[in-house]
Specification:
Blueprint: E1 25-29, E2 49-51, E3 56-58, H1 70-74, E4 80-84
Antiparallel strand pairs: 1-4, 2-3
Bound molecules: iron/sulfur cluster (2 copies).
One iron/sulfur cluster binds next to helix 1.
Length: about 80
């Protein structure tokens, strides 16, 4: 009589996969709505907003936005939109 031996040694071990999904945000500035108050750029923790002396614009990768909406909160023109992708 022969007996089977588990060659892998895994026996009844279950192998699972942990999927981590990161939330991605994107910021846009409506150039026509921006009044040029320069309230938003300095407060961006991702350092992707810049002020060119007349208007603010997204100078870095818009997808590096962290979604904090600090820029949205200070923009009285409603020119900034942060979208969760
Ligand atoms: S939401 Fe936050 S991280 Fe994104 S652009 Fe505005 S200030 Fe920067
Ligand atoms: S806070 Fe709004 S209006 Fe002011 S510079 Fe930034 S985008 Fe333009």
């Amino acid at each position: 009589m022969t007996s089977k031996v588990c060659q892998t040694g895994l026996g009844s071990v279950r192998i699972g996969f942990c999927k981590e999904v990161a939330t991605v945000f994107m910021v846009t500035i409506n150039d026509d709505s921006c009044s040029g108050c320069d309230a938003c750029a300095d407060g961006c923790p991702a350092s992707i907003l810049e002020f060119n002396g007349e208007k603010s614009f997204v100078a870095g990768d818009p997808c590096e936005c962290m979604g904090c909406e600090a820029c949205v909160a200070v923009c009285e023109s409603g020119a900034i939109v942060v979208t969760e992708l």
